[in-house]
Amino acid sequence: MTAVLYEIKTLRKVYDGRAVLDLESLRLERGKIIGLLGPNGAGKTTLLEILAFLLRPTSGRVWFQGEEADFAGSGIMHLRRKVVLVQQKPILFTTTVLKNLAFPLKIRKIQEKSRSAVIQELLDLVGMREFTNAPAHKLSGGETQRIAIARALACFPEVILLDEPTSNLDMEHQITIERIIHNVNVAKGISVIFTTHNMMQASRLADETLFLFEGRLARSVHENIFTGIIETDSEGATYCLLQNGLKLAVKSEKTGPVRVSIDPGGLKIEETGEAFRPDHTFRGKLIQVAEEHGRVRATVDVGVPLSVLIPKESFRGLHVTLGEEVWLTCPPDSIQVL
Amino acid sequence: MAFLTDSLLSACLLIGSLDPELIFIIYVSLKVSFLSTFIAGLVGVPAGFFIAFKEFRCKRILITLLNTLLALPTVVVGLFVYAFLSRKGIFGTFDLLYTQKAIIIGQAILIIPIVTTFTFSAISRIDDRYRKTALTLGANAIQAAGIVFREARFGIVASMILAFGRVIAEVGISMMLGGNVKGFTRTMTTAMALEYDKGEFVLAVALGIVLLAASFAMNIVFNYFQGKTRE
To answer: Concatenated DSSP letters for B79-111?
Structure first.
């Protein structure tokens, strides 16, 4: 058996003349937890639906464990049964939790006697045993997500695809879902591919992270993405005016409406505004601090929340606490016009 | 007003005595209405599914046409079917005119647009993610349609009840295609029209009461399913 799970070549999905997905080549390995990171509209959901064999690509080829998928043919059914997708805001059928979990077992013609043992085991795995006979459509968001994962596992999949499994969930449920995903991969050996726009979640959970931006694979994730307009003032300086009125000095040949991405590693936090430059430096409030791979990820609200990555030592030297005013320097080099 | 109160009293007595003529009229009415609704369901529900799931040319025109047919006058259907079933018509050799079968055919034509349109709208209201969820869980196209049907079931049942209510109360088709033949094709509505013509109100009022009761029962069931849909 090959260790390659998916192989993709020149895959494109076009909606109304616009390519929402355009991948030259991609190989995903088996047995791993793979995170697909990207902002909204990056094509993450489209890619997952193609990987689940639910959506037909406009062009391109997809192999699953060495077998090429024929999206138009009847053979797609047999590939689809090896993979399962848990959609963002998953849907449970309007019946009991038990019957939701029984559905994949029933269509796989698993005997009624053996069904209940499988269902109980899966409900235990997601910690929802006491909900067996509860009406599924009355569960909370977090509970729905857990039942949806349990139901997906009742398909005995080789891969489970999860579309933003923790978006719209509180921290407690996020942790629960992440633990379940980890267990599914380690204990059951099921490959996991999940999408998120949360950097920290991807780095916590995934063995491998892929970045998707505007339908293409990117070398790194674009962060701090904003829409704005590039203008040149009377003195010949080029600015990007963001929607909230923030004016950033940029180096760019482009003019007019653009999207810009600000590299969190290029931003600097200072306690005082000594090195103040009106077009580079902004006053803001430190609203969030977290550790990320030996560095500190801080969020500073300068009218828009900006994510900043700085070495731990630099942060220690700052002597600032949450809620305090800081100065944020945003050099033109750190701004990329997309 | 005295005739109404007198008739009402006599009508209640007539119902109470389980008059065989009355019972037979009720039986014919219910039988043709159930059968025509059943046929309309067999045709209309799959048609509604087809329109909801398939993309084809002139889909919008078809939907507009069906919506127009919702207000189809019964006499137009009667006339139209008569043209086919009369001795000179292409189906004249089957000798269907003035039989219960003719009424059933006419009534089914009347309510097929109702069942189709309301099934289509019940299914359109179901989020496409239900179908996708069923497919990713391993269902084939038919099983996935079954899931959508299950989610839309209350809406579909409601459309059938609505259709039944329309045929049980209609008079044009029953009269033109059934001919109001005593003991064969006399239904509640045609009998009422005849009794009215004769100036004998007792049977007419009795039938009116039964018809209202049937309509009331239908509405109770309809409301029950509507409530279920909203849950």
So the answer is: HHHHHHHSTTSTTGGG--TTSHHHHHHHHHHHH
CA distance A99 to chain B (A): 12
Among the partner residues A49, A84, A94, nearest to B137 by beta-carbon distance: A84
Question: End-to-end distance of chain B based on CA atoms, in angstroms?
Answer: 46
Contact A268, A240 (CB under 8 A): no
Cα–Cα distance for residue pair A205/A215, rounded to 1 Å: 23
The token duo for A13 is 């999905």
Nearest in space to A338 (alpha carbons), one of A250, A209, A233, A247? A250
Contact in structure between A277 and A296 (CB atoms under 8 Å): no
ipTM reported for the complex, 2 dp: 0.74
Asked whether residue B69 carries a pLDDT value surpassing 80, the answer given is yes
DSSP per position, A261-295: EE-GGG-EEESS-TT--TTTEEEEEEEEEEEETTE
**How many CA atoms within 13 Å lie on the side-chain side of B161?**
19
DSSP A135: B
Phi, psi of B120, rounded to the nearest 5 degrees:
-55, -45
Contact by Cβ (8 Å): A167, A141: no
Chain B hits for A49, CB-CB cut-off 8 Å, are 132
Query: Could you tell me the strand order of the sheet in which A4-15 lies?
Result: A18-29, A4-15, A59-64, A67-68
The rounded distance, in Å, linking the Cα atoms of B191 and B195 is 6
How far off is chain A from B59, nearest CA to CA, in Å? 20
Length of chain A: 338
**Burial of residue A31, with CB atoms counted within 10 A of its CB: 0-12 exposed, 13-18 middle, 19 or more buried:** middle
* Separation of alpha carbons B94 and B87, rounded Å: 9
- Taking CA–CA distances from B230, the nearest residue in chain A reads A94
pLDDT per position as a tens digit, A201-260: 888 888 888 988 888 888 766 778 888 888 888 887 888 888 877 888 888 888 888 888
State whether residue B138 sits within 8 Å of chain A by CB: yes
> Helices A97-107 and A141-153 sit at what angle, rounded to 10 degrees?
20
Tens-place pLDDT, residues A73-85: 888 999 999 999 9
**A325 phi and psi, to 5 degrees?**
-80, 135
**Residues A22 and A12: beta-carbon distance below 8 Å:** yes
- Backbone conformation region of residue A303, classed left if phi is above 0, alpha if psi is from -120 to 50, else beta: left
